[in-house]
Design brief:
Blueprint lengths: L2 E5 L2 E2 L5 E6 L6 E8 L3 H4 L7 E5 L2 E5 L2 E6 L2 E11 L2 H17 L10
Antiparallel strand pairs: 1-2, 1-5, 3-4, 4-8, 5-6, 7-8
Keywords: Cyanelle, Membrane, Photosynthesis, Photosystem II, Plastid, Thylakoid
Membrane topology: Peripheral membrane protein
Subcellular location: Plastid, Cyanelle thylakoid membrane
């Protein structure tokens, strides 16, 4: 089961918008996650420790996570996951395929 967490042990219910970019040689890439009104704020009032992508292969994580507040209330979370080689890219794609299938999501290629 593929899941996303901001606090280990607390699953995030909001489905993110994910944008991927990759270098031309395929050696590295970045995934940018955007969560509008994430549910973590409803169940946890402490510090967000990172973005954790968990599936049967293990865990991918990043500490590059930013929360946006409007009038003192949490509104959204943005996170970036950097992949430094082809193996990390392929591992991330396997996670996203599982997460997408589980949540009935699809991939849309950007228009140039």
């Amino acid at each position: 089961m593929a899941k996303i967490q901001f606090i280990q042990g607390v699953d995030e219910e909001a489905i993110p918008d994910v944008k991927l970019s990759r270098s031309q040689d395929g050696a590295n890439g970045i995934a940018k996650f955007y969560f509008d009104k994430p549910t973590v704020f409803d169940v946890y009032q402490g510090e967000i420790t990172g973005l954790y992508l968990i599936d049967e292969e293990g865990e991918l994580s990043t500490r590059t996570v930013y929360a946006k507040f409007i009038n003192g209330k949490p509104q959204s979370i943005e996170a970036s996951y950097i992949m430094n080689n082809r193996e990390e890219w392929e591992r991330f794609i396997r996670f996203m395929e599982r997460y997408a299938k589980q949540n009935d999501l699809s991939f849309t290629k950007a228009k140039n």
